[in-house]
């Protein structure tokens, strides 16, 4: 079945435009490198290392020079118009490249590589800045996932096609390469004709200031800490990715002892892993930004890199793909590269989405431009890191891979320390998915941004975990202080942001302090979850709401999201057949349903109305899973 976004004009034409562009980029770059290495160097006696580094520099340099200007263009012009102009530039560049290939003008091809890099640098800011104008906030993660999948598959297919084209001989090779470059550019231009309009949010001149513009966009990004941290996170991914991809041929030669086909197999595993990770991210996110996937992805590709670094050489001499496919060690390395890519997909998609959501409409493209500048700088750092580790220090490739793993795992730990709650919420979600057969309805009712109060019926001690895992945003929730101060679980409750509350009998001021903490959370734009009944149900039916919810809303009027929970009555954490937690568990993987209702607007929530809505949602949840509160 074709995904819905890929059948709609607001996304599909742009998807194919950028995918064909990435495909053409990689066909051109890899064909050029192969022609220089196997034709120009033997013919003219040029230095291979110098040519390869020159080619890499000519492609990266435009990202440093022109990304800021591209961001300014994308913010000041209709993005559809800009995309079409850039595709015309690509067609002109590839037509010139086709002529240069035919006449074997290799110096001209190097100059055109710089021109192609310029086109890519100008297209980069449009690539992600246009999506928020055509997709809703709940579709952004899925859109970014498909863009990432298209990009990495284009890298893989472009690399493979370049090898096939370069392996041809004589006029067939030159003609096939020339025709491919022009046809791909033409197809991309045709696809761009169907891209919908994306008008700018501000007008103004676009002065030619490449260096000054670069400093300005980086300074603007620095003044938005959350966005800048996301930019650094993405750049670290490209640092690690560049390190892995640059050393893949040497790894294949010296550790795997394979040929060119083995390099393609390892590259394919990595690229497919990134694509699968991106789609898995979209699946797990369920339409919302899931920040908890970022450290999970970093941890995943760190652990896979660790296993890769501990790998032993597979064969004593160069071996083909067919022979290596019989070796379990080779499939282990294929799996390692695939998992590295999978972790990368989980890691990078939420970061791109974070930039899109947190950037202002009038400078979003410039934030993407700042990202491209930082990416280019970190890729240069990756090259320097490889030279220092492998040439200056003389480390082995295994040690190099272990160093990359250490960077990845350190990054995961730093992110976990900086934002522990999203990762904890994701862990809770996985846990409750294992323990219960869950059905969620209406999760989009929880506002994507800003403060909100979620009210729900209280059936068992697992309710908070179910709501915390099912809600698309991290929740703050109230709980009894004796439980909060539990010796073994206090650390968990602190990270989760639980708000302890004492009974008025034990501490007359405890309730007031808890309400103050709730007010503080709401004023910080957080979501607070509340069980207005104040205690577990004793008969499966919902009890009357207490006045605490009215006090909270009187102090801080916010939208109220009602929720109804069913399926936990009768569990060992409920009060059925005895006090909760005093019975042995009798059920595993019980069916549980959680329904969220439409939010009640600010100032309109009344206790009786909230109670009625929660009762209705509870009954709908019970009907869905076929249980009652008998």
UniProtKB/TrEMBL annotation:
Coiled coil regions in record: none
Domain named Phospholipid/glycerol acyltransferase: residues: 452-568
Main localisation: membrane
Spans through the membrane: 27-45, 51-74, 86-103, 109-131, 143-166, 172-195, 227-249, 261-282, 289-310, 330-352, 373-394
Location within or outside the cell: Cell membrane
InterPro entries to which the protein is assigned, alphabetical: MFS, MFS_trans_sf, Plipid/glycerol_acylTrfase
Protein's recorded name: MFS transporter
Source organism: Chromohalobacter sarecensis
